[in-house]
Write a structure and sequence with these properties.
Layout (H helix, E strand, L loop, with lengths): L1 H11 L6 E4 L5 E4 L20 H15 L2 H15 L26 E3 L2 E8 L10 E5 L5 E6 L8 E8 L7 E8 L3 E10 L9 E9 L8 E8 L6 E7 L5 E10 L10 E9 L5 E9 L7 E5 L7 E10 L5 E9 L6 E8 L7 E4 L8 E8 L10 E7 L2 E7 L10 E2 L8 E8 L9 E7 L5 E6 L23 E5 L6 E10 L2 E10 L2 E7 L7 E2 L10 E8 L3 E8 L5 E10 L2 E8 L6 E9 L2 E9 L2
Antiparallel strand pairs: 1-2, 3-4, 4-30, 5-6, 6-7, 7-8, 9-10, 10-11, 11-12, 13-14, 14-15, 15-16, 17-18, 18-19, 19-20, 21-22, 22-23, 23-24, 25-26, 26-27, 28-29, 29-30, 31-36, 32-33, 33-36, 34-35, 34-37, 37-38
Length: 608
């Protein structure tokens, strides 16, 4: 263990800090800072991780990917020697369980003005701090969600896990997590594949749990279950706080986009004092064996002189691989500010702080972060949505965090009662930085969605929610990418009689399908939709003679974009898009295709 500590001290800990300020060109740049937020840190974006543990972890991944079982076993033995004092040992007497009756079919979906009723019942709202639902797109192309139900007779804690195989139009239950003694606070999920069989997709659920309704002494639980409901494992605490503390706000994170079967994943959370809720540390738990055990590390950025709330993490591929953790930093006498703590994916107490605010006059709350998981050779686009002075804003970096944009408007300045923001990116892309952003206005009656690329998010889709949304739970978003077509996915909790009830899904401008047609495309073309007039669906065919970026959008009669059917790279050939316009009103619409070499627009008529 002495060798382990020495390596980290030599490799990672430096008396260096860089923060960011606005330059004249609107970009943020590094500068020295001598204020109160000084701490021994390392510049993770500039120092290559050369520690022994990082080397062994990388070699283990190569052994797993190539199927070298002997080498894999040897490397696991060596890593276990390093980690032996840090491996958590779950208590078999401290377990949560699935409910047997929850397996299999869930219920038939009920379409309510195109918002799908995913769950009909009460959702918890106390002690949650807004993270009681989560939504992810799996590598298998399916949508997965988890939500914490309201405590009921015989059950203090209950998490429902569901999936959709048709883009959110119908949902079925995968499994559940329940406890008669523990309360569940927040939930965060991942969906990872080990082999190509879709049923092997594994849903990884991290959640805060406590025997106290005020969440004193809360720890972090973990459950792993396959998408067909089989192989349910876990249910015990994988991370526990020091005496007198509690762990809250789990944020699941993974490097699985870059590996077929050698995925490492983990969770980031905050540790807080039971007595005054001040920060004690950021805690990172990580597994290299699909959850059989977890190792952990605590990071302290001069806590509790200030406190970091609502940590949310994203993985960044690079040298070294690292985690970016966005936090709402609260001070004793200053307004809350936005900070990003970057730390190596190989567990270390070293970190680098990004100070992404320019003064103390503005207040920044409840951040959400995403990093585009594209090709490992491309610079990483990081996007953070945040509430600035009650207005929805976002900030982004196109070079992996070396420089940052100025704050961009996610919402309008007049929309100054924002309650929550959310951001997500396409997790199944090799080249795109396509993102979806959303924000909920304070009363819960309106959720607004925007999608596109950072700096050009496109049209505001106003009040996409059919029903009032809860002011206690944040909506969540994902990019759904069937057959190369990027669609917006939104999950939110409803509000009935001033209490959080029901879970709703809205797939913004869902495309039923994108199909490749037989034959060779000799030239670019866009055909007339059929049928026309139509209600509610119609087919649009087009041809492209080469692999290229394609944009296919729908506009109303006054030129406003109402749907983005395709926005990304497509292969050469003849293609057909089945467009469902059930959410649009009758009238004349135009569909327009754009490529670097071809543009065409045609008219269509929707009659209801």
């Amino acid at each position: 263990m002495t060798k382990y500590i020495t390596l980290f001290l030599l490799s990672f800990v430096f008396t260096f800090i860089s923060v960011t300020s606005f330059a004249q060109d609107g970009q943020m740049k590094s500068q020295e800072y001598t204020g109160t937020e000084i701490e021994k840190q390392f510049p993770s974006s500039n120092i290559i991780d050369i520690s022994e543990i990082a080397r062994l972890e990388n070699e283990l991944k190569e052994a797993i990917e190539t199927g070298n079982q002997n080498r894999e076993n040897l490397l696991r033995t060596r890593l276990n020697e390093f980690y032996k004092d840090q491996i958590s040992k779950p208590n078999s007497d401290d377990r949560d369980y699935p409910l047997e009756e929850s397996k299999g079919a869930f219920f038939q979906p009920e379409w309510l003005d195109n918002d799908v009723l995913v769950y009909n019942g009460d959702i918890g709202q106390t002690g949650s701090d807004h993270r009681r639902i989560d939504l992810k797109t799996g590598e298998d192309g399916r949508l997965y969600a988890a939500f914490i139900r309201r405590p009921a007779t015989g059950l203090n804690g209950y998490i429902q896990i569901v999936k959709s195989t048709d883009g959110g139009q119908s949902w079925s239950t995968v499994s559940s997590i329940s406890s008669s003694t523990r309360y569940f606070g927040q939930v965060s999920i991942l969906v990872e594949n080990r082999i190509s069989n879709p049923d092997s997709s594994t849903i990884l659920v991290f959640y805060s749990r406590s025997e106290n309704s005020n969440f004193d002494n809360a720890n972090i639980g973990f459950v792993s279950v396959r998408s067909d409901g089989a192989n349910w494992t876990g249910g015990s605490a994988i991370l526990s706080p020091a005496a007198g503390n509690k762990l809250l706000y789990p944020s699941a994170v993974s490097d699985g986009q870059y590996w077929t079967s050698a995925t490492y994943f983990g969770v980031v959370c905050g540790e807080y004092s039971n007595s005054d809720s001040k920060s004690q540390s950021l805690v990172i738990g990580k597994t290299i064996n699909w959850g059989s055990n977890f190792t952990s590390v605590n990071i302290s950025d001069n806590y509790p002189n200030w406190s970091d709330f609502f940590p949310v993490a994203a993985f960044k591929k690079g040298s070294p691989d690292s985690l970016y953790i966005a936090v709402e930093r609260r001070f004793t006498s200053l307004k809350s500010q936005l900070r990003v703590v970057a730390t190596p994916w190989t567990l270390s107490t070293g970190f680098h702080r990004y100070t992404l605010t320019t003064g103390t006059d503005n207040e920044y709350l409840k951040p959400s972060i995403t990093i585009a998981q594209n090709s490992g050779s491309l610079p990483k686009t990081a996007v953070i949505a945040v509430i600035e002075n009650n207005v929805a804003k976002y900030i982004y970096s196109n070079d992996g965090g070396n420089s940052w944009s100025s704050y961009n408007a996610l919402g309008l300045a007049s929309e100054n009662n924002i309650k929550f923001v959310a951001i997500s990116s396409d997790s199944n892309s090799t080249s795109s930085d396509y993102v979806i952003g959303a924000y909920q206005m304070g009363g819960g009656d309106t959720i607004v969605v925007r999608r596109g690329r950072p700096g050009n998010l496109g049209t505001r889709n106003y009040q996409v929610n059919q029903f009032a949304s809860s002011i206690y739970n944040a909506p969540v978003v994902a990019v759904y990418n069937p057959s190369g077509t990027k669609s917006s996915a939104l999950l939110y909790t409803g509000l009935v009689s001033n209490y959080t009830s029901n879970v709703y899904f809205d797939g913004e401008h869902l495309v039923s399908s994108v199909s490749e047609l037989p034959g060779v495309a000799a030239d670019y073309s866009l055909e007339q939709n059929y049928p026309n007039p139509f209600n509610p669906s119609t087919a649009i065919r087009f041809s492209i003679p080469e692999q290229t970026n394609v944009s296919l959008k729908i506009f109303n009669s006054i030129g406003q974009e109402v749907a983005a059917l395709i926005n990304g790279e497509m292969t050469a050939g003849n293609h057909e898009v089945n467009f469902n316009a059930s959410k649009l009103s009758s009238g004349i619409y135009f569909y327009r295709i754009e490529t670097p070499a071809f543009t065409s627009t045609k008219k269509m008529i929707l009659i209801k």
